[in-house]
Design a protein that fits this description.
Shape: globular
CATH class of the largest domain: Alpha Beta
Strand order of the largest sheet: 8-9-10-7-11-12-13
Order of helices and strands: EHEHEEHEHEHEHHHEEEEEEHH
Number of strands: 13
Structural class: alpha/beta
CATH superfamily of the largest domain: Dihydrodipicolinate Reductase, domain 2
CATH topology of the largest domain: Dihydrodipicolinate Reductase, domain 2
Largest sheet: 7 strands, mixed
Length: 316
Amino acid sequence: MKKIALVGCGRISKRHIDAISDTQGVEIVLVCDIIESRARKTAEDLGVPYVTDYRKIKNVDVISVLTPSGNHPQHAAEIAEFTDAPYIVCEKPISLTVREAHELFSRVDKAGKTLLPVYQNRYNPLIMMVKELIDNQKFGKVYQFICNILWNRNDAYFDIDWHGTRSLDGGVLFTQASHYVDMVHYFFGELVSGKGQGGLLRGLEVYDSISAVMRFNSGVVGSLNATVNVYEKNYETEFTLIAEKGIIRLAGTNLNTIRYWNVEGMERPDIDFQLDHIYGKGHNTMYDYIAREKWEMFPSREDILSGIHLMEKLSY
C-alpha cells in the first residue's frame, strides 16, 4: 500500500482525493495546507492528521503537490529536499517557464527523488486511441488540426487570491487549457514555430483568451483557441484532425465523445464515456500506475520540457 500525503487542499484536491479513494493500493495518510482551517477541514473529512508545513511530512511514499501553479517548482523542489518521500507528484504545470523546469529537475535529481508530473489527459481513452492511430499511421499523413477549449470561469473564481496573477497563474494556457496544449504536443511532437495572440479582456494580469497557430517538426499545422470567457458555464472542448485517410472530431466536456468519424477502413469506435466532473478519469489511471509502480507510463523529462517550451512560446 502506497502512503500518500497531499500538499494543498484547494479546488483540485477533491479530484485527487476521489481518485485515490477509488484506486486500490494507495491511501491518503496526511494532508497539508498553509491555511490551517482548510487543512483541518480536509483532514477531518478524511480522518487523517494534518500539518501546515510540508517540511514536517515524513514516512510517506508519495507527496502530491496541489498548490497554485506558480508555486509548483518551489514546492516540489523543497519537498524533494526536505522530506524522505521518494516520489513527488506535481499537478500541471510543473512550472511557468522552461528555466524553472530545468532548475526543478536539477534539484529533484540532486535530492535523489523522482518527479511524477500530472498529465492525466493522456490517459483519456479517446486520446490514447488517437495517439496510437497517429503513431501507427492509420490516418495516413496528418495535415492539420483545430483545437478549441471554450470554458467559463466566473468572477468568483478569479477572486481566489492567486488566480489571474502573472506570478502564480500563468494564464489560460497554463492553468485551464494546459492539458490540451500538452495533447497536441503529445500527438505531433516538437514545435518548429508558433505564435499566440492573447487578450486581457477581464482586466487580469494574464491572458484570459488566446488564439494560437503552430507548425510542428512532423509537418502538421494547426490552431488552438482557449478562453475562460464563455457565458455562464463551460461550453465545450473540441478537437478536429484532418488527415490523408480521414477526418475525426472529438468533443464534449473532456473530449469524451466522438462527434464525427470518417476514416478509411475503420468503423467508428464505440468508446464514448460519461463524466461527472470536468477533470475526466485520468487521475484514477495515474494513481493506479503509482500503486502498480508503472513509472514508465509517466512522460519523459525531454517530453515534459518540450511541452513547457511550447506553452511558453505561445503564451508570451
